[in-house]
Design goal:
This protein has about 270 residues and is of the alpha/beta class. About 30% of the residues lie in helices and about 20% in strands. The protein has a seven-stranded mixed sheet with strand order 4-6-7-8-3-9-10, with helices on both faces. Strands 2-1-5 form a three-stranded antiparallel sheet, with helices on one face. Helix 4 (about 155-165) runs parallel beside helix 5. The chain is globular and about 60 Å long.
Length: about 270
Amino acid sequence: MHRSNPHAKGHLSQRSFLNAVRLERDRVQNFAAYPFCVPAIQRLQRLEFHPAVTFLVGENGSGKSTLLEAIAVKLGCNAEGGGSGLQFATHDTHSPLHRCLVLERGGGTPSDRFFLRAESFYNVASELEKIEAEFPSRIPFEAYGGKSLHAQSHGEAFLSLLNNRLQGNGIYLFDEPESALSPQRQLSALTLLHRLVCEHSQLVIATHSPLLLAYPQAKIYQLSEAGIAEIRYTDTEHYQITRDFLNQPERMLDILLSSQDDDLKSQT
């Protein structure tokens, strides 16, 4: 079990907007084709979501971003990111997975939804710039703190999104939000994510960050060659590797770098 947090207990009684996602396996034409050949996707049956925060973890290529993208598209969000009202395509590369998914809705209807995709957040900012140029009266950046996202660093723009655009009572999907954030800013983001939870929001987050993963009482799923399985925070590689490195950095560096030194010596 995760350690308790008296400030987080209140979210346990809230209802889910999204209870689960199912793969309609009879609609998959070829499990040998991408993305259905990815082991975690290939073995997907039904995945239940926590009413507050669900994390997806796994190695690069494990399918977490692909699954998150498909859920976002199924919810009516743009595959490159943004809310349900922001529809554009810089490069149409999203997978057909969403066509084979079924979302099991929960109680109530979210008043907001947003998909943050770190790798294409620049494209979202560019689209907002385009809207502002074509329709000045719409003032698209007003919802983001009144300042162009391109006039901010990547990390500042993401925190501006959390602080201003996301108003709560929504379902929010984040794909590797930590990629632009320093450790200190990740802690700030953790506080802002908790604010959204307290404002009756549901979050699904794909991440590599042991700091974000520490959010109490969240559900964590690990995607791997064996499929998808729930895992405790302290059992994740993210936690264990970070802990081991910080506890004994010299020993870890010696192990990591000695093999390279041996290779260099053998080449001389």
